[in-house]
Amino acid sequence: MNRSTAVFDALGQWGPVAALKAAPLAYPVLEVAHIVGIALIFGTLWIVDLRILGRMQVLPLERLTRAVLPWTLLGFLMAAATGSVMFAMRASDLITNSAFLVKMLLLFAAGTNAAILHSRGPIDERSGATRVQALLSIAIWVCAIAAGRWIAYV
Prior knowledge:
By secondary structure, this protein is an all-alpha fold. The protein has 6 helices and no strands.
């Protein structure tokens, strides 16, 4: 066992994590909550991205983004919290799982894309760059969800 693996093995043996691992329903319940969080994130971002791409023009973009942002943040908090706990429960396995690593890279790319979009100020739906970022957002999230599902099979 090398040094980096030892850290992840120790995480899995830490008291609170070991207690969760011993509870038969803990991981499935965490997975359900994780999926609900992902659905909130992707669902709300999908709506905003489609609006940026010219769909649902009956809804003003600024009003739409203000309405869905709290749900996006709730989804992010749910997915991040449950994902962190699930990672702790299986850290030694996941850290070497290529699908997990791809998912983490895609989540970083999604966050970077969003940060760049919002760093430019108010979202300008007429901007070509904004439209490209909306398409990129949808593609990254679909790929991240797919990579997340593949974790169990790699």
